[in-house]
Design goal:
Layout lengths: L6 H16 L16 E2 L6 H11 L2 H9 L13 H4 L7 H14 L4 E2 L2 H6 L10 H15 L6 H4 L1 H6 L1 E9 L5 E8 L2 E4 L6 H8 L3 E3 L5 E3 L4 E3 L1 E9 L3 E7 L1 E4 L4 E4 L4 E4 L1 E3 L12 E11 L7 E7 L6 E5 L2 E4 L23 H6 L5 H4 L4 E4 L2 E8 H40 L13 H9 L20 H19 L11 H24 L6 H5 L3 E4 L2 E4 L4 H42 L1
The structure holds zinc ion.
């Protein structure tokens, strides 16, 4: 620490630094756009972790299970007192991942810092690890950590989502005797070398190999050694099928890992039925994610991902803090150029047009993608995907409904309060028509900076809905501050009421569009009891524990504070600049 600074100064210094970090180059705070997922900060060389975090986060079932993960059933977290005091600091890896997911969903920031999670995993942020190895290790770690959970959906989420079964089948060429050795898998490791399409890779994976000569097989049917064939036969596929394309191979000559830069074609929809020996069309999978490595060498370069958002079906590019919509109805997937080779990172479709090495994509058939960067493809089973879309659309509808109702209620309550406030008698009965305001003051009591930071949010760009919320809460604050002041001009604000009405209309229209796109089937029970609640200007699932809600609220308050400081700094700088200019104008 800088010793010449008093503690107050260093606090201020830290605040300023944070505010600078929170602000863009032009000084506007880094709030994320509505409906654009949050990015993740890169801590040096951690882009490989970030791309997997995004893939996992965008698996709705996986994310839900993490939310329902109960710290009380975890040996590390059970004793964590910070769970109760409203200033939560997770101890274990799963707890940290839970918090990270919560932040990724509920933050208003453009990017979330995964530092705590990466530190808890014991990863060196400066060293780029083997991404495929990392995901395998982490999944097995997670599987064992979740074993202590009581909720089955949480306990078995890794298996339920990603685990399939295949068997090594050996068949006697003489009597036809089959011997099967079943094995579980969490991803299919496909050989890329020598294969041009995903279909080639799958055929290669399941191809028969001959056991002859010295390799003859002892047949139990014939009770003697026989010529035989052996192959991998897929028995059962998981709802989410991860297909690894082995781009990183061991080079015998150099004794090091090298990267295959060959291109591979893959379909947006793949029928796996034939591999399962099932009727055609009974096991159809849709592409929902592509993990890429750009750069010529295995040990350098950048990891990023193209992921489809479940509810809207919109594809996004995830490159650390940069999250962008992939434009067009049929975006080019798995095509990104190396940012180190002069192209702007995040050039999106422009980059794909320019990219020379990926030109085969232009000649690809419809519904087929081509990539020389993709090293893992995520496919989701068609019916599962439909169910997810339906659920996510319903959740979104409920959330909007709950938020809208609560905003109107809060506003109405505030008006009543204001009217009552003008009558001295009614103030003594202790009725608080705006209960969320009371909650907000207690749950925000434990702010990071000693709880003394006053919450004065600023109007921030991006998202009309948030501005609306801001407006309502600002209005409420003003009313509360005015207290028994007899002025009543604020009791009905036509402008705010108009906004509420306006927002309601637009949402109705939006909900109509959602309905068209989603499934016609409606789930009555889900619709009848909303699973969400409105608290302090935000909509949370009803099942959310308080420690998570408090965490999100603190983060929002902190961000507003950062934005305010950034704004003040900007004004300050401008004034300073003006003063200097004035000075010079006087001199000349
Ligand atoms: Zn035999």
């Amino acid at each position: 620490m800088k010793e010449w600074l008093t503690s107050e100064d260093s606090d201020e210094e830290e605040l300023l630094l944070e505010a600078e970090a929170a602000a863009d180059v032009d000084g506007s705070p880094s709030f994320r756009e509505m409906d654009v997922p949050a990015g993740l900060k890169n801590l040096g060389n951690t882009c490989y972790v970030n791309s997997f975090l995004q893939i996992w986060f965008h698996n709705a079932a996986f994310r839900q299970a993490l939310y329902e993960w109960d710290p009380a059933l975890d040996s590390e977290e059970r004793e964590n007192e910070s769970l109760l005091v409203g200033n939560y600091e997770p101890r274990g890896k799963v707890a940290s991942l839970q918090l990270l997911f919560v932040m990724m969903e509920f933050t208003n920031r453009r990017a979330v810092d995964p530092n705590d999670f990466i530190t808890k995993l014991g990863l060196d942020p400066q060293v780029q690890q083997d991404a495929q190895e990392f995901s395998k290790l982490f999944m097995s770690l997670l599987e064992s950590s979740l074993a202590a959970q009581e909720n089955r959906a949480v306990q078995k989420v890794v298996q339920d989502q990603f685990r399939g079964r295949y068997a090594y089948v050996t068949t006697c060429c003489h009597c036809g005797w089959e011997s099967k050795r079943p094995t579980e898998f969490y991803e299919l490791d496909l050989t890329l070398q020598g294969n041009k399409t995903l279909s080639d890779c799958l055929k290669d994976y399941t191809k028969e190999e001959k056991l002859e000569g010295d390799n003859q097989y002892f047949c139990e049917g014939c009770n003697t050694k026989r010529d035989a064939t052996r192959c991998v036969r897929l028995l059962e596929l998981p709802p989410v099928l991860n297909m690894q394309l082995n781009r990183f191979i061991f080079d015998m000559q150099t004794g090091r890992k090298k990267k295959l830069n060959s291109s591979v074609q893959f379909p947006e929809q793949v029928d796996m039925s034939s591999y399962l020996r099932q009727k055609e069309g009974t096991s159809v999978y849709c592409l929902t994610g592509v993990l890429m490595h750009v750069g010529a060498e295995a040990n350098h370069g950048h990891y990023l991902a193209h992921i489809q958002e479940a509810r809207s079906g919109q594809w996004f590019k995830f490159s650390d803090t940069v999250v962008e919509r992939l434009a067009g109805k049929n975006p080019k997937l798995g095509v990104e150029s190396d940012p180190m080779e002069g192209e702007m990172p995040g050039a999106g479709s422009a980059a794909s047009k320019k990219s020379k090495s990926a030109t085969p994509s232009s000649s690809s058939a419809k519904g087929t993608q081509t990539s020389n960067n993709a090293y893992m493809l995520v496919y989701t089973e068609q019916n599962t995907l439909r169910a997810i879309r339906r659920r996510e659309a319903e959740k979104s509808r409920q959330k909007k409904q709950v938020e809208e109702n609560s905003l109107q209620e809060e506003l109405r309550g505030a008006m009543v309060a204001k009217t009552e406030a003008t009558l001295p008698v009614s103030r003594t009965n202790g009725n608080s028509p705006a209960p969320s305001s009371k909650k907000s003051s207690t749950s925000n009591g434990g702010l990071r900076r000693g709880g003394q930071v006053e919450r004065t949010p600023v109007a921030a760009p991006g998202g009309k809905r948030r501005r609306m919320r801001q407006k309502v809460s600002d209005r409420l604050r003003i009313m509360r501050a005015q207290g028994d002041d007899t002025e009543s001009e604020a009791s009905t604000d036509p402008e705010t009421m108009e906004d509420v009405e306006d927002i309601r209309k637009r949402r109705k229209a939006a909900a109509g569009r959602d309905g068209e796109r989603g499934e016609p089937v409606k789930h009555k029970e889900e619709e009848e009891k909303p699973q969400f609640m409105f608290q302090n200007g935000m909509v949370f699932p009803k099942s959310f524990p308080q420690y998570l809600i408090s965490y999100v609220e603190q983060d929002r308050a902190q961000q507003e504070e950062d934005a305010k400081i950034a704004q003040e700094m900007k004004v300050c700088n401008n004034t300073l600049l003006q003063q200097q200019t004035d000075q010079w104008t006087c001199v000349f």
